[in-house]
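Our platform keeps sequence and structure together, in a single record for each protein. Such a record has a labelled line for the sequence and another for the backbone structure tokens. This encoding replaces a full spatial description with a residue-level series of whole-number codes. Below, we set out a record of this kind in full and without editing:
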Amino acid sequence: MTLKQFLKPDWRKIVVFVVLFIAIFLIGYYKYLTSDSWTFGIPFEFSSGYGPCPYPNVIECNKNNFIFLVLDIIIWYILSCLIAWIHDKTKSKKK
């Protein structure tokens, strides 16, 4: 299998990616509900802030990093490709 085939999107990889990304978002949301400060993103924190901001449009209340968001998306997509590849390998061994 080449790298191009490994990274080529299909429905399984996209579904696994979406499930992983939503799970990470829910973990960040839970941290937001249970603390004064919050972060979104694993392994890189692409969004962070503190408390309920009294002024929603004030920049000081939260900080976003677009580059870390892109890196998180890349990492979780590669992980979903790896999960699909492992599933294919274990499925072919059972036959």
